[in-house]
Amino acid sequence: MACALCIIGQMLTPYHIEITLQALAEYFSPRALSAITYANIHQDGLGGQFGHDEYHFDNNAFERTYAYIEEQRTLTVSALQKKDAPAAWSAFGRMLHTFQDFYAHSNYVTLWLARFDGQAPPASSNIDPVDLSLIHSPDLRSGKTYYPFELLYFWRPARAFALSWLPHDSHAWMNLDSPEQGFKFDYAMQAAMRRTVIEYGKTTAGFSEDMCQLFLDK
Ligand SMILES: [Zn+2]
Predict the structure, then answer these.
(1) DSSP H or E segment with residue 204
(2) Which of 116, 130, 151, 158 is deepest in the core (most CB within 10 A)?
């Protein structure tokens, strides 16, 4: 059984798997896809939980998070140049995890939906995951983790109590980690899926044919 600690502050593991497989299945071999997905969900293991806001877009650590993302992208490229495909898949999987968490842990989806205030919003599949005016908006926030109190949120009998005490800028209030969080979850999933494809394109754009072959493993 997964311990509660393994899911704190995280979009739940099955959703990271679903997003990654659905977005990338057509590009990679099953072996490469498995390695990428494994590295992705490993970020939510116990070792990645505390003191790693940059893995999960938590606590408004945007600058640190973007630096981490570009570090993983650079590692992906340098591993391929050394013909080390497994290291490239791992770095790429770690990078994707962070991008996917962005939509579940920030108010990006809420800000995007606010544009349609008063009218029915477009279907979730129409969300633009890279609206720069929102990405750079002074109103953009990500959930703060108020440990240890935040832990109560993950014990179901204490959830309502925890929410009554935690501030509204907490991870507990802001997360879109599962369908229980309501209709915005679908928008977070769709945005994460589209962003995954965009980052795949951005990362592989300058690859030589040899690098592509090694990376896609096909
Ligand atoms: Zn995470």
Answers:
(1) helix 184-204
(2) 151
Does the pTM surpass 0.85? The reply is yes
Place of tokens 């769709």: 190
Structure tokens belonging to residue 128:
């633009």
d(CA 34, CA 28): 9
Q: How far is the CA of 55 from the centre of ligand 1 (A)?
A: 6
* Residue-wise pLDDT tens digits, 133-149: 999 999 999 999 998 88
Cα 10 to ligand 1 centre (Å): 4
From 69, 41, 46, 47, select the one nearest 57 (Cα to Cα): 69
Residue 10 has pLDDT above 90, yes or no: no
Q: How far is the CA of 103 from the centre of ligand 1 (A)?
A: 11
Residues in the chain: 218
Determine whether 105 is exposed, middle or buried from the number of CB atoms within 10 Å of its CB (0-12, 13-18, 19+): buried
Question: At a CB cut-off of 8 Å and minimum separation 6, what does 151 contact?
Answer: 4, 8
Residue with tokens 């493993």: 217
Phi, psi angles (nearest 5°) of residue 53:
-55, -30
CA-CA-CA-CA dihedral for 140, 75, 197, 139, to nearest 10: 0
Residue 61 C-alpha to ligand 1 middle, in angstroms? 14
CA dist., res. 155 & res. 108, Å (int):
27
Instruction: Kindly give, in sequence order, each residue whose CB lies less than 8 Å from that of residue 216, ignoring residues fewer than 6 positions away.
Output: 27, 28, 29, 32
